[in-house]
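Recap quiz, item 2
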Amino acid sequence: GAGVSQSPRYKVAKRGQDVALRCDPISGHVSLFWYQQALGQGPEFLTYFQNEAQLDKSGLPSDRFFAERPEGSVSTLKIQRTQQEDSAVYLCASSLLTAGSNQPQHFGDGTRLSIL
Amino acid sequence: QKEVEQNSGPLSVPEGAIASLNCTYSDRVSQSFFWYRQYSGKSPELIMSIYSNGDKEDGRFTAQLNKASQYVSLLIRDSQPSDSATYLCAVNMGSSNTGKLIFGQGTTLQVKP
């Protein structure tokens, strides 16, 4: 596609439920990033993939958060046993080359997650 | 001290004026710097990138980088009401080898007709 596509756009879940958020990056982009954006704040890094390899997961807030990109294209961010503090916008970004190339990142529209 | 700091604003300027947005960062060896514009409920949109000291101009936008002062700014000339948005400064810290961006909290710009 022309841009980074994320689904669903909105997700409402009850506390304790598991959720899965999908990201379809720009075709051919090697690098994929997940960020979490709280209201009124800038995005915060969660995890980074280079193709199918998850090279950095230092930003994942707890072991309830899990991300995968099994074929080096589409990625899924899964949150288990959701808590109210997980409510945020989850942004996916991709860039053409590997991280060291200083390529700019292009963002999807995000998934707005609300935990009741 | 936050790694990337911005004044949250709001910064209010009249239409046609120059808007000046500022950002400071803590990691002296940071290598690349980006400005993103984010409209309410929308994704961050890249508007400028800058990698070396000095000025970089693109249309009405000018990014300025001073690595010695650890300071990056964005100037918007002839501001338009459509420029009203939150502007995010993002830095690729030199200490990171994964390309992750560290964002400031964003500055809200209001351009009044």
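The longest strand of chain B covers residues 85-92.
DSSP finds no helices and eleven strands in chain B.
End of item.
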